[in-house]
Design goal:
The chain is mostly helical. The protein has one domain. It binds zinc ion. The site of zinc ion has 6 residues, from helix 5 and helix 8.
Length: 272
């Protein structure tokens, strides 16, 4: 990963991005209407390899601490829901059929869940238990997280940052001072610790809801889920998932409308 943020690479990225502009689409056509063109400068194979490595480390550590998939019932439940979504994901992006998907539950009072690039999922027991989530609500969360991976938002975010770094590097040549923010922090835990942009969140919401609907889950669980999240965030313990996935009334209203539109569309959900 380190080579990504070498100055020379960053400077090259600026030239490259200026030459290529927006250049790819990670997912195909969707009923939800997600079809934005994306600029990708970082290679997906290298990013996926790094994510695999980081995921293995997180899983190995959880195993060592005796908190990996210890609640058999919850693990089975989460894996069943995730597998139904994963089975439908190739409808949005055919090549993800070949991904090495993994789904693990870590017993920890953390209110979070995530999916790293390449389909590496973790759900913390805390979010399911403390928010008393229904299967439909779990599907909405997982659909959202899976769609960050299908849309390769981490790769896009890293590419955007590379351009910014490149521009900063050029600025530095002219003696402009700056505070280093670097990709290192982002590379630390890909798709886990750094907030996505609002447009990435909206895409993950919309495509994720379509994925959940295709898999036979009730999309109307989305507004109830995020309302639960917002209510819980008023309490003493801040919700980790909201620090990376901010929520508000507008977002909830958008999901409510989309849920109705999905139900009124021609899309045929699979029977569970
Ligand atoms: Zn998100």
């Amino acid at each position: 990963m380190r080579r990504f943020w070498k100055l020379s690479a960053a400077a090259a990225a600026v030239t490259l991005s200026l030459a290529l502009g927006g250049c790819t689409q990670t997912t195909g056509s969707s009923v939800a209407g997600v079809n934005r063109s994306q600029m990708m400068l970082v290679s997906s194979s290298e990013l996926d390899a790094e994510a695999d490595k980081q995921y293995s480390e997180i899983i190995a550590k959880a195993k060592q601490q005796g908190v990996l998939n210890t609640d058999k019932q919850l693990t089975r439940r989460v894996q069943n829901i995730a597998n139904r979504l994963i089975a439908q994901a190739p409808n949005l992006r055919p090549d993800c059929r070949d991904w090495d998907w993994q789904v693990n539950v870590i017993t920890e009072d953390t209110l979070n869940a995530w999916c790293m690039p390449g389909g590496k999922i973790v759900v913390y027991s805390g979010i399911v238990k403390q928010l008393d989530l229904t299967d439909d609500e779990i599907a909405v969360i997982l659909g959202h997280e899976i769609c960050h991976a299908l849309r390769e938002h981490s790769r896009e975010q890293m590419s955007q940052q590379l351009v910014t770094e490149g521009l900063f590097s050029v600025a530095e040549l002219f003696g402009v001072d700056r505070t280093y923010t670097g990709l290192g922090r982002q590379a630390a835990q890909i798709g886990v610790t750094l907030p996505f942009s609002r447009s990435h969140e909206t895409e993950a919401d919309e495509l994720g809801l379509e994925l959940a609907y295709r898999a036979g889950f009730d999309p109307e669980a989305a507004p109830t889920l995020w309302k639960k999240m917002m209510a819980a965030s008023q309490g003493s313990e801040p919700l980790e998932i909201l620090s990376t996935h901010p929520s508000d009334e507008k977002r909830i209203a958008n999901l409510q409308t989309l849920a109705k539109n999905l139900k009124a569309s021609n899309l045929q959900p699979v029977k569970d």
